[in-house]
Amino acid sequence: MSTAQPIIEIRGVDKWYGAHHVLKQCSTHVGKGEIVVVCGPSGSGKSTLIKTVNALEPFQKGDVVVAGTSLSAKSTDLPKLRSKVGMVFQHFELFPHLDLTRNLTLAQQIVLGRDAGAARTKARALLDRVGLSAHAHKYPGQLSGGQQQRVAIARALSMDPMAMLFDEPTSALDPEMVNEVLDVMVALAREGMTMMVVTHEMGFARRVAHRVVFMEDGAIVEDTPTDVFFNEAASPAAQRFLSKILAH
């Protein structure tokens, strides 16, 4: 893992929804090429935390810095920054009226300014990478959930991101479709992609994560190397979580 400045830094972030304090002095970082899994019980603030990284969720205190750029600085071009931080959501968020190729080329042309031919070449290569090149002219509704999520990953990769964020990418899938998505994510991890992943898939975490961030009630309770988290979790909350998750 690189000792250079982290790609992602979350510095003392607080967020409220009205009177509800949803993130409490959260601080962590993700280095270049590092895979960090964020886990914890439902409602602990995991998805909110990861969405602060590309400013999909505003925060009231602290700062988030991506590749040296502060999200809270008025001069920051947030759309430009988001184009360099890929985001994969729980529910795919594909354009249902566009075929898979167009789903992958649209942002390349509009945001990155790629010409149509180069964008199509990139799209085809990425669909092949996620095992879906034969479906390039299909529409999202013609695919299974696992296939749609693989397209969503390919679409994020089409923007040449410096890091990838995954917000519970398998939680909306039928169990038999989970592994086909996790296999793509494992391949990305092995290629050195910087990744921050909110997930309950502890097998994935154990297999590829460098660190695990455990949250409870809006706070980061543990931020520790993966083997330490699974074998020597210090907090009672993490121990309870692991006993429930690993029992199934």
TrEMBL record:
Gene3D superfamilies: P-loop containing nucleotide triphosphate hydrolases (3.40.50.300). One of its GO terms (cellular component) is plasma membrane. It is found in: Cell membrane. It is a peripheral membrane protein. Residues 8-242 form the ABC transporter domain. It comes from the Bacteria. Keywords: Amino-acid transport, ATP-binding, Cell inner membrane, Cell membrane, Membrane, Nucleotide-binding, Transport. The keyword Coiled coil does not apply. Pfam families: ABC_tran. Its main location: membrane. GO terms for molecular function: ABC-type amino acid transporter activity; ATP binding; ATP hydrolysis activity. Belongs to the ABC transporter superfamily. This is Arginine transporter ATP-binding subunit. It comes from Pandoraea faecigallinarum. The gene is artP.
